[in-house]
Amino acid sequence: MRQAIAKTLKINMLYVRTALQGVISPVLSLRVLDMRVLFLDFDGVLHPAKSELAAERFCWLPLLEALLAAHKDIAVVVHSTWRYEYRDEELRALLGKLGELFVGSAPRGPREQAIESVLQSNKGRLTSYLVLDDAPDEFTQGKLNALFVDGSVGVSDPAVQKAIAAWLASSASNP
After folding, report:
1. What is the pTM of this model?
2. Domain 2-170 adopts which CATH fold?
3. How far apart, in whole angstroms, are the C-alpha atoms of residue 20 and residue 34?
4. For the segment 93-138, what is each residue's pLDDT rounded down to a tens digit?
């Protein structure tokens, strides 16, 4: 299934110089039109931000999986700091069922800038996107379509689930 998704999306990595680090960093470029993207943080979104117990890691992932189950047109891009510690293959595995929707991670650098790089390199290809994060202070410009969650409850918060469902419904393709 993963190979079919990768083949369908025709993922292509571009390399750009990040302004802050001055290093070459990959930017995900999707070659599909009319795609919806969910930019995903892990800590504070999929498990408590201050979680130190391994058993708590990804404890809310099944909730997000359930919300996205009927929406196979969603591409998941990880912008979590976990992208510094884990390769894309490992991130895909950590995402369980959502791994089927995983298309890559944002480039190195501040979250807002990394997400904007992905959006810029895919301009005209995306119909909609949503950033899920628990750190509004990481997003200073306020230009991104972001849903900021309480890091102690993440996507387990019914209001957050309702907001995600509303985004999914409002951005769905009309046949």
Report:
1. 0.80
2. Rossmann fold (3.40.50)
3. 31
4. 999 999 999 999 999 999 999 999 999 888 888 889 999 999 999 9
Burial 76-106 (b: 16+ CB within 10 A, else e): bbbbbebbeebebeebbebbeebbbbbbbbb
Bridge partners of 77, per DSSP, are 39, 104
Show the beta-strand stretches assigned E in the chain: 12-17, 24-29, 35-40, 74-78, 102-105, 126-133, 146-148
Query: Which tens digit of pLDDT belongs to each residue from 1-20?
Result: 333 333 333 333 332 222 22
Q: What is the DSSP string of 56-106?
A: GTTTTHHHHHHHHTT-TTEEEEE-STHHHHS-HHHHHHHTGGGGGTEEEEP
Q: Residue 153, class by beta-carbon neighbours within 10 Å (0-12 exposed, 13-18 middle, 19+ buried)?
A: middle
Sign for the CA dihedral angle at 133, 139, 145, 149 comes to positive
